[in-house]
Structure formats: C-alpha cells, structure tokens
Structure prediction request, 674 residues.
Amino acid sequence: MKTLVRAACPHDCPDTCAIRVTVEDGRAVRVQGDPDHPPTHGALCTKVSRYPERTYHAERVLFPLRRVGPKGSGQFERVGWDEALSDIAGRLATIAARDSQAILPYSYAGTMGLVQGESMAARFFHKLGASLLDRTICANAGGEALAATYGGKVGMHLENFAHSRLIVIWGSNSIASNLHFWTFAQAAKRAGARLVCIDPRRTETADKCHQHIALLPGTDGALALGVMRELVVNDWLDHDYIARRTEGWEALRDKAMAWTPERTAGVCGITADEVRGLARDWGTTKPAAIRLNYGMQRVRGGGNAVRLIAALPCLTGAWGHAAGGLLLSSSGWFPVNKAGLQRPDLLAGRKPRTINMSTIGDDLLRDGSAAFGPKVEAVVVYNSNPVAVAPESPKVVRGFAREDLFTVVLEHFLTDTADHADYVLPATTQLEHFDVHLSYGHTYALVNERAIEPLGEALSNTEIFRRLAARMGYTDACFADTDEQIAAVAFGDHIGLEQLRRDGWVKLPLPDAPFAEGRFLTPSGKCQLDAPGLGVPDYVPNYESAASAPELAARYPLAMISPPARHFLNSTFVNVTSLRSVEGQPLVEIHPSDAATRGIADGAMVRVFNDRGEYRCAASVSERARPGVVNGLGIWWRKLGPDGTNVNELTHQRLTDIGRAPSFYDCLVEVAAA
Prediction:
C-alpha cells in the first residue's frame, strides 16, 4: 500500500521546506518538496532529498547503549530501556541531591521542531532545577542585534524578493544554504534585477551574481558605515522616512561621516570604487532588498555590524516597498507560546545559573567556585554534537573525556559526542515522530506528521524525557502531555493545530510591506538606530586581525573562516555516504598567491595551525579564497579527519559584542605543507 504523508524539514536552515513523504508498505521510499507550498515550490536541497538514506542508514543507533570502553572509544554494549532509564535517573537524582545545578542540558537545532526541540526536555530540566543553557552558538549576535533595531527577529516576506530590482546577498551562500531564497533571487535576476554578493569567499552564489565584493572577515560594519556616508554625501536618503520612522539618526550620521570610501576600503580590503558603487546601487535603485545571513555575525563585532546593515533600508525608505527592506530572520513573527511549551514555572522560584553553550570547553574544565557555582558533574546532550561543533575543540574534548563527568546523549548515530557518552539513547528521525515548525526564512507555520513507525527501539525526544520524568518521580500533569497536546499549545489560539494538520502549512496574516508605515516592534514603533543600553552602533574590529593584533598576525598571517561544506549541514549528513563521497575529504581553500609563497600544491596535505591547535587536511588551491584568507570547510566529524580533528581545533571561545555568541570566523592561522 502506498500513502503520501505531509512533513517538514527539521534542520537548521531558513527554508523549512514542506515535504511529501511517499510510504510503501510501511517504508519511506521517497521525500519530495511540496509543490503547493509557495516557498518550497516542489524542490528540496540535495541533502534532504537523501533523507531516507539517513533514516535507514546501517549505522543508526536503534537500541540503548552503555559505555564499556574508555571515553571517546565508541565502545558500547546494548542494554534495555528499563535498565538505562533507571540508572540514568538514579545518577541524576544523586547529583541533584547535592546541587541540581551540577547537571547541564546541552542542545541546539538538531531539530528545529517546537515539540521535539525544547518542550518536554525543558520541562524536565526546569523541574530538576538544572543549570540553564544559553543557546548562543549560531545566531545570537545577529538575532539580538536585529531585535534591538527592529524590536524582534522580523523582516521581509521571502517571495517578495522576486520583485526586487536590487538584491544584496550579504554573508550568505544562498545556493548551498538558502536554496529557496535563491530561486526568488533568480526570478528577480531574469526580470532585470542586479545581484550583489558580499562575502570573503567566492561562493557558488557569488559566481552567479553580477558583482562579488570580497571584503575581509569581520569588516562588514565598516562597509555599512562607508555606504552610509555616501548616502549622505549624495543625498540618496529618504528624509521623510528617517524623520517619521527612525530614532537616533543624527548620532549615527555623525559617526558615519568619518568613513570615507578610502578609509572604508583600507579596512575592508577592497577598493574605494567598490564602496562608492555599492552605495550608488543601494541609494538609487528601488525596490532594493538585502538578504543578510548569519555568517557575517560570527566575529567579535558581529552584533554591531548587523545593527549597521539593518539601518540601511531605513535610510533610503526601502521598507516602503513590499520588495524592499531586509531579511535576516522571520522567526519573530511567529506567535510561539514559549512558556506553555517549556513551563518555566516548574522552577518554582529557583534561579539556576546559566552556562553559555559556546564556552562549554572552558566550563567543563572548571572546578566549582563561588563565581561559577558547582562543578559540572552531568551533561545530557540532545539535538547537538558539541565535540564537533563547539569552538576550541581541544578543550571540549578534554571536558567530555572526564571520567567523573556523567554524560547521556540522545542520538541517531555514534557521533564524536556520542563516543564520549556513558549512555547513548536512540532517538527518532523526522520521519518517525510528530512535530510542528516555524521558520526563520519565511512566514509559514508547518506540520510534520509521522510517516513511519520508529525503527528498532528508537523513541522521540519527548517520549525519552517523559519516561525520565516518571523515573524521577515527577507527577505534574504536564509530563503526561502527548506530542499532539504539546503541539496544540505551540501557537496558542493564533494557528489552530486542526488547520495545520488539514492543510500542512499556514501563512501568517502579515502586511505585505510590514514596515512601510514604520510600526516596528520596538516600544516607540520606530527603528532604533540608537538603541537603549547599546547606543549608536559602530565598527568593532576582530579580536584576531593584522590591525588589532599585529604581533599575533606576524606569526599567523592568514585569517580563517569556516563556512559549511555544501553537502553538510553543520555536522549533520557527514556520515551519509552519498553526500560525503561528493565532498571527498576535509579541505582548506587557499588563494594561489598564498599557496605559492608557502610551496603548497593543489591537493597536497597541509597543516593549518595556531596557538590553540593543529588541523591536518587537504589544500584546495583556488580563487574561492581571497588573498590573505583561507576557508576551512566544515563541519566534518573529528573522527573522519586525517588526525581525528576538525576545523574547530583552531577556533576560540571569545564572545561577540552583542549576544554572547561565538566568533568562529575571527581566527588567525598559518598554513604549511604537512
């Protein structure tokens, strides 16, 4: 028997595609994009189109596992659910009796679902009184900066980019990581729109744009200030919009006037004519839009840079057009009932400490102190792979290798993190459970129906935490909620679950040009260019650059960014054979001039190193890298690298100016032949 099931892509991608799953005799045989869903329009990326291959992978963890070898060895024995849950609950209870803050949940966006993400899990850890986790690792700098400027993580409608006359793609390799936006950009291009890509790397997207501006990593804020000055000097401003819809422009204008094209070009590593040309395009083309993405905010000054770029549509009145403005994230439009999902009331007045997930390497190695609180004695990891993805991984590995750290990992596969677990619990994939989704790249809520029965003894995240709660003796009614009951809470009365299940997706009722009359989500309804508590944004140089750290740059003269390999999504899909075979092997891209001075040939093995560590991989001598910058494509599982390391061997744990987020792309290295 053949059936067609409505689903949604769960991964950390702005597209959040609507999917149709073909099931034959209880087995998922095909996944396709929903042709009726406007953002998806029938297409899926290469990664998600292989989802059945991932679900039925021969290496799926399908039964609870208990460690029998040294931490990191990946040596486990099969145990039953009863034995595993009883032991886990007992050990957590023993630790909690001393200090429940010694227990830390660690999770991020392995699924973006509102049910399987932070619902039953959050309830469990709130009841337990565990340490809170500051979930900063991807987007916090940009997200908090955007909220400080617009009042929330809000922006344009995706489909309206098709009608823009100028699209500036800033810090996004859209072809690889935002495919469905790219189709609308292509439609605009066919209709005569100009496409400009701003990115240190010559990406596949840059190849298809009319212009590529290859600025130095971390200088995006300087470029935005340089553009502002040219808008003022040439009077390419919408004075009425500025006066009625913004606050703080005078102070920002005074700051921008110091950024001549020549000064801007010197900081950014581009030409003064590129600065003038970008400003002219932005100031004289209507409607004009910016697709800003999160790569550019992974540096020390990332938050300030997002605030500066977000100001540009207000200065020219671009928001007056439905096809004008900016999109970084749309997630703030969704009416999510976070308290109903996560139940912070279960803390019952307790105020546990908060640990930043981006500093997990340092924090797992800390002893207890008055300032830090108790030593971390247990970590429960779900929807994440911190040993591979967290910065400065030598410290992360040392932390997870502690014999006195009790570690539980909910997973599909034996990842680098799972290899360090005391227990690995088999979790369901998206095809095997129910969920509802928002998006940070469009304005449609979606449902994911379960397409197949869970394989082996896999359980959903919600069911695992339900069972753990029962073993801990928690009798609050919320721990008995079914997935459907949790989903009904997710959007409250704003989006009915019955409608979602009937139609598969629901478009939010928002204006076509949301900020044409201002009405930002700030207290005043105006765009805050001078935000309370933050002041006027400014260019903040990198921690590690020739300008800010000349002695360090003398030893490590190359800036390194670590964008995702095209066929991976963070560390997901790395073990899918068909996708890994396309990527081939871990690579660092290096410009021919930088390779020549170091005697490095294309395809040769190289050492990429700094004071934090060394990473061995193959060199791709390519003009995808600009001079002075190398691109360490990630994120490979460490155990699949030549020396059991990956690019995060070299990144550091210092945080961004806004949002307490990591600065992965703020990193100096040297490269030498291996």
User: Anything to note?
Assistant: Residues 65-138+340-507 form a domain with the Rossmann fold fold (CATH 3.40.50.740). The chain has a mean pLDDT of 96.
